[in-house]
Every structure is written in structure tokens, then in C-alpha cells.
Amino acid sequence: MSGPARTPSNIAKFRGNPGRRPLSDKEPKPPITAPPMPDYFDAVARETWAYYEPKLLAVGCLTESDLTVFERLCVYRSQWVRLAKKLTSRHALFEKTSQGRARKAELFALETAAKMIAGCEAKLGLSPSDRTRIEVDLDAEKPSDPAKKILGWS
Hints:
Blueprint: H1 9-15, H2 43-58, H3 67-90, E1 94-97, E2 100-103, H4 105-124, H5 128-132, H6 138-141, H7 146-151
Antiparallel strand pairs: 1-2
Helix pairs in contact: 2-3, 3-4
């Protein structure tokens, strides 16, 4: 299928469904869970996991289906931090070659990791541009008082 990826129904509801097309009620709804942290993570990946996991759970963006995307985010961020430290310690981003100057392989890997992080953040709704598209009705999230419903005060 060509064109942009379809927007999940829960995201379309938050955005207000500007196209007014009917939303699917048969879309799978995986349970929101706190998955266990993988054992192979290094220190930076563990810090990333510990930082983002409660935030994603609080807004309902971390489900069983999102686990691989979340793992990739943590791994890519770990790689990015390691490469950034390596490049800043050397102070040289280019090297001389027979054809002139060329970017170091570490710089290319750093840029690639940054793109991968941005992709994972977008899928999980962590980038600022993705958050601007989401509208949340804070009044709808407040729990209703059952006594008010019984007495007809709602």
C-alpha cells in the first residue's frame, strides 16, 4: 500500500480526527504493561529505560507491542552516547585521505544513530513535533463521582 502510514485510532482520537473519516473499532488494543528490562543493556541503555518507562506508561504509550521499539530506542541512545564521547575526545571529525578530507566513520555512525533515535521517539510519541499533534481532553480524564450520577447531579 502506498502513501503515508495509517494513524492508529487512539492517536486520531487525541488529534481530534480532522478528516472526520470513521475510525476503526476493530483495531487491536494491546495491554499497557511494564515490561522487564533486558539483561543485555549497558549502563546508558538502563538509564534511558529507567527515564522513559514511567513517562510512557503514564500516557499509555508503552504496550507489549511497543517493546521492540522501546528496546531499540535504548540501544541506539547508548550507541549515540558512546560515539559522541569518542568523537569529542579526539576533536577531529574529518580525516585526510588521498582525495582530500572525508568524514570519519564514527561521525557517520553518530548521525545514523541520531536518525534511528528520532524514528523510535516518533513512534512512541516522544518527539516535540509528535506531541503537538496530540490533543488531550483533561476534563474527560477526571474520574466521575458515582454519587453524583445516582443523585442526577452529573
